[in-house]
Amino acid sequence: MMGTAGWVRQYGPLHIPLIVCLLASAPLAHGQKPRPAVEHVYHNPILFADYSDPDVIRDGENYYLIASTFHFVPGIPILQSSDLVHWTILGHAVARLDMDPRYSMIGGNRYGKGVWAPSIRKHDGLFYVYFPTPNEGIFVTTAAKITGPWSEPATVIAQAGLEDPCPFWDDDGNAYLIHSITGAGPLILHRMSPDGKRVLDDGKIIVQDPEHLPVLEGPKLYKRNGYYYIFAPIGGVSAGSQAVLRSRQIYGPYEHRIVLAQGSTRINGPHQGAYVETPEGQGWFIHFQSDGAHGRIVHLEPVQWRDDWPVIGADPDGASTGQPTPSALIPDHDPPASRQHPQTSDEFSEAALGPQWEWNHNPDDAHWSLTARPGFLRLTPMQADGDGLLSARNTLTQCMQDNAFEFTVRIDLAGMKSGVHSGLAMFEKDASGLEVAQTGNVRRLYFFHLPDRLAGPTLMQETLQLRVHVDGDQARYSYSLDDGQTFLALGTITEIHFSWWKGSRPALFAYTTLASDPGAVDFDWAHYQPLGVNPW
Predict the structure, then answer these.
(1) Phi and psi at residue 345, in whole multiples of 5°?
(2) CA 470 and chain centroid, separation
(3) Measured CA distances, 476 to 295, 402, 447, 496, 502 (Å)
(4) Is 0.85 surpassed by the pTM of this model?
(5) Where are the domains of the chain?
(6) CA 267, CA 48: separation in Å to the nearest integer?
(7) Which candidate in 50, 53, 55, 435 is catalytic?
(8) Quick check: 524 and 386 in contact, CB under 8 A?
(9) Structural Rg of the chain based on CA atoms
(10) Structure-model confidence comparison of residues 329 and 239, the more confident one
């Protein structure tokens, strides 16, 4: 872990999330005297961002995390870490969702559909990512390198109503696929072809116990010391807990235990995730917790094994109070990789968008560009219907990464024409934000909170900056007409929300309500600034 020999301070047996102290020694150069062990302290959540339904594997010294993205494209972000705490975004596993034209906003939309809980594994030198779409089936994409290229998604099961697939290759070479049913039904196990591309049977229900394991979903299948283990949450996203089932036979019968619950902490859930081991064999469990408008944020827990059962978390009545304390600073000699964090700001000066960006649906690539005006993101507005922003194409979004932050964009309106609306929003079902709307030759700034609008100033200039300040579940908006020297508030403090199974997101947009030439809108940059300390 972290490229060093390390150990973990162990706590008591109760199964609740809390802060964990990591201690490790940096590797020694030849002839260098040993240094005292350095205490590395992190506190949960490790990612204050909406990486829902996380799955994690280790490959060598690196860990890779993927998450569900629903209708956002590209889908399934891939994050990399060397220590399970600090993460950076490598890219995405799914470039587009072509299973239905509504993923491209043709004939409707697929908000809340698309990529549900995925899983990642490596087998015979190949990375596999499985994911369900609730309306179309279960799919798999593969790559020889974690950075891709990833294959076009192949259909593993063409059937609606399935969720949360996870593959498993046994010691004898047999391959299996486990999944649940939409609405959190029983767990079903299939034999699968050795290449992982298709199932070989209709599947068999191996766990169905609504009395003791209600709302059973998100299964992850592992093998350890001759036992088959299924890590699966029960009880629902906001109020449930984490169960582990085990059996000597892959088809069961399975016995179960609750291994992670809220206890006396304020960490509701805790919900589905992944078990992973360091090169030294230390176990860890990564899971999500529902946190309102911020979506499902990610926590890390230590795992001990007792009598071939995992013990996750710690005892707040023993070694710790279970209350958060500040993290220690990472020492200067710590590996550079340990300072990794997901990307946020973008100068739009590269040949590609930063990997933090995801469109609201499949983008129309003919209507955006990073090369038409180098150093700018150009959006060529497309026509939207009466729903305005929610029916607009090519809305560009990214996850919030902190409880409090400021997100500021600089916009050049010189090419904008009548009928166009363009600006900055917190994208969700009840979207809010600031937009410039042009009627004829007149441009005016508005605050909006769907479906309401509040008029601001008429603009006499071609450039301005728009800003959203988020603190918890509240957003407030401001603008600058003097290139960022002063910002003026517009609109009211606005509640942001969890919707479509995703957290609210900062978003850049440009659409038109007219059939005439819309011109173009150029975004110079987008800057993200975290504020304060996350309240955990």
Answers:
(1) -65, 155
(2) 18
(3) 19, 16, 10, 10, 20
(4) yes
(5) 5-339, 358-530
(6) 13
(7) 53
(8) no
(9) 24
(10) 239
Q: Are 24 and 5 in contact (CB under 8 A)?
A: yes
Count Cα neighbours of 138 within 13 Å in the Cβ-side half-sphere: 27
Interatomic CA distance for residues 481 and 485, integer angstroms: 8
Q: Which residue has the higher pLDDT, 39 or 443?
A: 443
Number of other CB atoms surrounding residue 401 within 10 Å: 20
pLDDT for the residue numbered 376? 98
The CB density around residue 331, as the number of other CB atoms within 10 Å, is 12
What is the CATH T-level fold of the domain 5-339, as seen in this structure?
Tachylectin-2; Chain A (2.115.10)
d(CA 341, CA 395): 24
Read off φ and ψ for residue 465, nearest 5 degrees: -115, 140
Question: Is 334 a residue of the active site?
Answer: no
CB contact set of 349 (below 8 Å; sequence gap of 6+): 374, 375
Question: Could you tell me where the beta strands, DSSP code E, fall in 291-412?
Answer: 296-306, 309-312, 358-359, 368-369, 377-379, 382-383, 396-397, 404-412
Do residues 440 and 386 touch, judged by C-beta distance below 8 A? no
State the DSSP code for 314.
Answer: B
| C-alpha span between 144 and 280 (Å, rounded) | 25
Separation between Cα atoms, residue 9 and residue 16, nearest integer Å:
16
Question: Has 291 been annotated as catalytic?
Answer: no
Average pLDDT over residues 2-8: 26
Q: Looking at the structure, give the CATH architecture of the domain made up of residues 358-530.
A: Sandwich (2.60)
Catalytic residue selected from 55, 163, 217, 358: 217
Intra-chain end-to-end CA distance of the chain, in Å: 24
Model confidence at 339: pLDDT above 70: no
Look at residue 338 and tell me whether its pLDDT is greater than 50: no
